[in-house]
Each structure stands twice: as structure tokens, then as C-alpha cells.
Design brief:
- With 147 residues, the protein is mainly α.
- The protein is built from 8 helices and 2 strands.
- The radius of gyration is 37 Å and the shape is rod-shaped.
- The termini are far apart.
């Protein structure tokens, strides 16, 4: 059996393509003497004929990229896709703003109890919930102007 034919049989046995077959130097001389598929099977068992490993994709570049992104690089305007609201959770931003406003209202109540009387406090609290104020400064201005 010729070498080429033997390699074809080895590929058939290992269920891979001919290009994936690796034959050692010693196996090259022995494969020429192989007559049957059984002879090739013995060569495979002796590891003179082997299956070549698949070319693996390196993950190195991806690792470097992930490292840079962890540092905060590659997050510029050109890399962004989708709306701002999709990138940042709307509920969390709302919660943060409401909490900040309520905190400032508490501070205003402790510092100026006359300015924020009880009825006014409840009213302001509800207004915060209803998204009446744009930010802390607006709330403070509203209280100081005495509306």
C-alpha cells in the first residue's frame, strides 16, 4: 500500500481530513509496509501516525482588550451604540436623584425648621416624588424663596 493511500486510510479511521494526519519519521518508513487498515490501526496505537491538533484561536488579544476596558479605556463616543437610557439603568438614576433630593430636604428641615414647616415638608416630599424638581439646587431655591 502506497504512503498516500495509507494516509487516506488513516484519515478514514480517525474520521478526519488527510491534511490533519501527522506521521513521524519512523512511522513514515513503517507506513509504506502497511498493507491493511489493521496495520494502520496498530501504527495509530503505537502513536507513529497521529491526529494533528486543531489550530486554536489565541485569547491573548481579547484579554488585553478586557484589561483596557476595565481601566476605563475604549468607552468614548465612537464606541457607544444605543441610547443613553439603554447604557444606564433609568430606574437606578431615578432612585439616586430622588434619594439625593430627599436627603437635601431632610438637611433643610434640620437646619431651618421654620422655613420647612410640617405641612410644607409633606408637600415638598410629594413634589419630589412627582418629579417637580430638576435637582438639589432647584429644591433649595424653592425653599429659600418661600413658595
Amino acid at each position: 500500500m502506497k504512503t498516500e493511500r495509507a494516509i487516506e486510510h488513516a484519515a478514514e479511521i480517525l474520521k478526519i481530513g488527510k491534511s490533519k494526519i501527522f506521521v513521524t519519521a519512523e512511522g513514515n518508513t513503517r507506513i509504506q509496509d502497511a498493507i491493511t487498515k489493521d496495520d494502520i490501526r496498530t501504527l495509530i496505537k503505537e502513536k507513529l501516525v497521529q491526529k494533528r491538533k486543531d489550530a486554536a484561536l489565541s485569547h491573548g488579544r481579547a484579554r488585553i482588550l478586557a484589561e483596557k476596558k476595565a481601566k476605563g479605556r475604549r468607552r468614548g463616543l465612537g464606541k457607544r451604540k444605543g441610547l443613553k437610557s439603554t447604557r444606564i439603568n433609568r430606574k437606578k438614576t431615578w432612585m439616586n436623584s430622588v434619594r439625593a433630593l430627599r436627603r437635601t430636604l431632610q438637611e433643610l428641615r434640620t437646619s431651618n425648621p421654620k422655613q420647612v414647616e410640617k405641612a410644607g415638608y409633606q408637600n415638598l416630599y410629594r413634589k419630589i416624588k412627582g418629579n417637580y424638581f430638576r435637582g438639589k439646587k432647584y429644591l433649595q431655591r424653592y425653599v429659600t424663596e418661600g413658595k
